[in-house]
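dumping this here so i dont lose it
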């Protein structure tokens, strides 16, 4: 009943935000009425190439974002589809300075992979301009078959592969207030997850190793084990990028501090800290360098399946985990013509449980390349495909906006 009451509370929060948003939408409705009379063209007025700007801006349309899932942790192959609705927000003008404002984005999604992993979900991120408030609401359901890796120091065995089935209901909400300089904001975030776990398979032939694994995770062997995870956090951020979807210049950075405790609806007790920075530098007018740094730190007793991991193109999900993770990634984008771009990237990271074990932890390296097409010029939104080579082979990614896109 505990997780049910929390879900009811979050539903009430969603309804409250929806009411607030609708109360500020009267002027937008008048604007939409004008847009309905506007004829939509799928060709850009400048170069007459295929473009969805008018469809998105004037008709409140959506972009169908397909994805080919080649993630090794989820069976190696699958597909997903996510219609994305975008509402462009006018920039904020303060002290004769123009600051871009993030658009309102709504998305629904569904996906399936060959190892019978599937999920559905949706979310909305919006802005209440009058208050300078940004908020997001997300939820879904997933039936995930995923590999986790365990080290057995007693037997000097590393990376013993165990496949779990996880049934999860995640719900998240966030709200932040912009400062006088709208690039700075401070806010709260909340995540609730109801999880049910069970072991599908232990990929090892040594019975001694298998018995050690069973001793460690015995509760999950014969039946599903349920648990509730909840985190309440504080987030401070700076967003000086010139564009949300495909930035050409600027810095985005944020720091979060999350607290998990029965007081906020969790069965576990731990703290989680994360800091990240994304910096875009225009070397030339058509050559953009991107730098990404990310670090996460856990304090306390976190369930193994929630440990931070190296989240990078080409690196299997949940493969390189630890109480601490660090990664650095570089990306170059060359806009060789108005619509088309080539991308090259590479990076590395480590996951470890203690700083004294940093040297012994395995590096996770990846590199690759891809292309982009400017599908909505007025939003500077590019889409494309990346091919990445990582520790366990090639993977493919459908990219919407930036590969580092985070709201």
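and the seq i came up w/
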């Amino acid at each position: 009943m505990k997780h049910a009451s929390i879900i009811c509370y979050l539903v009430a929060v969603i309804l409250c935000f929806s009411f607030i948003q609708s109360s500020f939408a009267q002027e937008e409705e008048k604007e939409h009425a004008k847009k309905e009379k506007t004829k939509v063209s799928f060709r850009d007025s400048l170069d007459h190439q295929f473009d969805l700007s008018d469809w998105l801006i004037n008709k409140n349309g959506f972009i169908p974002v397909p994805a080919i899932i080649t993630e090794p942790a989820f069976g190696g192959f699958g597909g997903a589809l996510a219609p994305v609705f975008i509402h462009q927000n006018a920039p904020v003008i303060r002290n004769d300075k123009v600051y871009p404002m993030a658009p309102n984005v709504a998305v629904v999604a569904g996906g399936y992979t060959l190892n019978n992993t599937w999920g559905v979900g949706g979310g909305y991120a919006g802005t209440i301009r009058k208050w300078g408030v940004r908020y997001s609401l997300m939820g879904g359901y997933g039936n995930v078959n995923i590999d986790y890796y365990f080290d057995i120091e007693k037997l000097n065995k590393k990376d013993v592969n165990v496949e779990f089935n996880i049934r999860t209901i995640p719900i998240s909400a966030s709200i932040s207030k912009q400062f006088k300089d709208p690039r700075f904001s401070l806010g709260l975030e909340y995540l609730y997850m109801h999880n049910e776990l069970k072991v599908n398979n232990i990929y090892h032939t040594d019975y001694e190793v298998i018995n050690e694994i069973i001793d460690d995770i015995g509760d999950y062997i014969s039946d599903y084990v349920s648990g509730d995870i909840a985190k309440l956090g504080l987030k401070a951020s700076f967003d000086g990028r010139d564009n949300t979807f495909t930035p050409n210049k600027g810095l985005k950075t944020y720091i979060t501090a999350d607290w998990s405790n029965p007081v906020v609806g969790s069965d576990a007790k731990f703290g989680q800290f994360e800091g990240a920075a994304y910096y875009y530098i225009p070397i030339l007018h058509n050559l953009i360098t991107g730098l990404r740094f990310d670090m996460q730190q856990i304090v306390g007793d976190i369930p193994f399946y929630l440990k931070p991991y190296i989240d990078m193109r080409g690196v299997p999900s949940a493969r390189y985990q630890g109480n601490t993770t660090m990664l650095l990634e570089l990306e170059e984008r060359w806009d060789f013509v108005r619509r088309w771009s080539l991308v090259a990237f590479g990076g590395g990271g480590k996951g470890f449980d203690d700083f004294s074990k940093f040297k012994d932890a395995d590096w996770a390296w990846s590199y690759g390349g891809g292309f982009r097409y400017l599908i909505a010029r007025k939003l500077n939104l590019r889409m494309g495909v990346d091919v990445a080579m990582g520790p366990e082979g090639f993977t493919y990614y459908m990219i919407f906006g930036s590969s580092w896109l985070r709201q």
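The chain has a mean pLDDT of 86.
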